[in-house]
Amino acid sequence: MKNKFAGLTEEFSDLEYVTIFEDGYGVSRSSDYIIYSVEAEAIDRVVAEYGRATKKGAIVGGQTSCKAPEIAAFERHLPSDIEIISCHSLHGPHVDPKGQPLVLIKHRASQQSFDLVTRMLACFDSQHVHLSAQTHDRITADTQAVTHAAFLSMGTAWCANNQFPWEHSRYIGGIENVKCNVTLRIYSNKWHVYAGLAILNPSAKQQIRQYAESVTDLFKLMLGGHKAELEKRIKTAGEAVFTAAGERGEPLLLSDEVLDRFSLGKLPKEKTPNNHLSLLAMVDCWWKLGIVPYDHMICSTPLFRLWLGVTEYLFRKPALLDEIINISIEDNTFRSDDLEFTFAARGWSDCVSFGDFSSYRDRFEQIQSYFAPRFPEATRVGNEMIKVLLDKT
After folding, report:
1. 106: closest CA among 80, 84, 81, 82?
2. What is the pTM of this model?
């Protein structure tokens, strides 16, 4: 942005090895290694404008969350003598990168250049994961697209019901703490962080659509009182997703003590029964898509590990799962909430299917403004929660 040129030049005037250029042409002509850190929606336009000025023999990469449009832009607009090595840090802006997955994609480059980029990025102390662009997009869709859709839908439903969930005892304590904290954490970020992954990732649309279908199907079974069919479907999905982890004797990612510790409200003496439609639908969605979430742990984000942690907490405790199934049929306390959640899940799926960034942004920012007053506290509590989870995993 040219209007920031003077200010940045003054700010960095004391640093001998930092040069501020007026635009991307100066950067492209003089740099040996360039990272395009722009929204996935804008990557083609930006590379088209500055790519032709890239220094001969330079290395170029990007930090977008969806690599299909990024790699296509590089191949379309960069000269053939430019090497392409992309990357993606699989965590948010407020998470310590140490030990977190950092994907490196050697798309068009020599091993010598790839080793150079690896050494430069070693300063993050992240765990390097080598993938192709196609595999990266499939795994990020598996671990992020549906996870984001679930939390976006929760926020939409609470907003539609004019609820601040931390003010209601039904949404405080245990699994509810994760739902509230992560939902607010997502809505406190920029809309394009999630829009690009959902709309431009070739695998994401199908997965988000399946999540909406799973929510709808399970809600209809609950409304109709079809307990036997609901129980069979939920337990079949649970066995497909969690049996292997149970047989290996893997401990739960989250405990009662951890779940209850991070609350935005005062813990009630007794917890209100909840059928946890959002969690049941997530496991149903994984089952329908043939996804085993543990297979992608090396590329998982902190938010995905939290979401996996609460789903396995529910499904790997048979008595708790039976209780949830009974509540789903016999208790109407959450029916209006579940109705709005079903509408929300279908609405986000439609928005992604239409590929409309403008509608996605309007929808996101409307709900973001509703929850904005509680973002600072939610971010603080969420950071503490994620730190505990990372220490365990």
Report:
1. 84
2. 0.84
